[in-house]
Write a structure and sequence with these properties.
Largest sheet: 4 strands, antiparallel
Strand content: 35-45%
Number of domains: 1
Radius of gyration: 22 Å
Mean pLDDT: 88
Helix content: 10-25%
Number of helices: 3
Number of strands: 8
Shape: globular
């Protein structure tokens, strides 16, 4: 089964790259060689996909319409009930995805998949992201956007992986002693 997954690449220097899959934060790698990083990520995807439940395998495909946008956020999150306010500033990269039958786009900050939200058009991204960040930061008491911002440009690429599909069969064999019991209890002819 061939998988095509969105891959985010961030270069912080001429000889250093960091790559990850935005929907699977545990699949990440960094180092000097982009080709070695792709190989490492491919192996991680193969191992993760093999353990995935059959019903969840569809999540490992990329939407046909995908973009990466960098949004400059400058907003203030204010809580009217207790007077808290957080100044939220930064440049947040966001992955935009759209499936053909959907009337909306899914916007996911590349470093925080839990902040995903839906927008009607890509033009609504700036306002939608500011609203989502204000709400999230007030609920979770997050005062700064540093962990989600990027200093260097990120670019979107596609990671293609050829892997075996998940199986509905048990992942381990029946223990030997269970086989012997069945053989003893079997009716003799």
């Amino acid at each position: 089964m061939e998988l095509k997954l969105p891959l985010v690449i961030e270069r912080s220097g001429a000889h250093f790259a960091r790559c990850w899959l935005p929907h699977w934060p545990s699949i990440t790698a960094e180092g000097p060689s982009l080709s070695e990083l792709r190989d490492d990520l491919t192996l991680m995807v193969m191992l993760g996909f093999e353990r995935e439940a059959v019903g969840e395998a569809w999540r490992w495909q990329m939407a046909p319409h995908v973009r990466l946008k960098h949004v400059n956020v400058d907003t203030v999150a204010r809580d009217q009930s207790d007077g808290r306010s957080y100044a939220l500033k930064g440049r947040v990269p966001v992955l935009l995805e759209k499936w053909p039958d959907d009337e909306f786009w899914v916007a996911t900050p590349t470093k925080a998949k839990e902040l995903a939200f839906a927008i009607a058009t890509p033009g609504d991204l700036d306002e939608g992201l500011a609203h989502r960040l204000r709400t999230w930061c007030l609920d979770k008491r997050v005062e700064r956007l540093d962990e989600w911002c990027c200093e260097h440009d990120q670019r979107l690429d596609v990671l293609e992986v050829d892997t075996d599909a998940p199986t509905i069969l048990p992942r381990h064999s029946v223990p030997l002693r269970m086989r012997k019991r069945r053989a003893k209890n079997a009716p003799k002819e």
